[in-house]
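--- STAGE predict ---
source: upstream dedup step, 1 unique chain passed
mode: sequence only
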Amino acid sequence: MVYIVCRKLPKEETYALSDQLKRAVVSIPSNIAEGQKRLNTQETIQFSGIALGSVAETETQLLLVQRLYKLDVSKELALVEEVTRMLVGLIKSLRK
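--- STAGE serialize ---
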């Protein structure tokens, strides 16, 4: 969904907001996967926290897209909220 949003941005954003947004969204599952492969609960929590930071970065950038370019990113922002809840739940369960 984010890649589709990025295609709608002006060309001058190709190497700025668009690139940063793509990197942030790719970072989310990448950090979760890396944390899971560490086979250590503390590292899994750490990498899940990094993924949560990337979720916050994604949300901020989507809000910028919405404000600067008047694009409707409400579906993407709703998904960000869902991913946030899932990650927070994962981190809480791992800490127990």
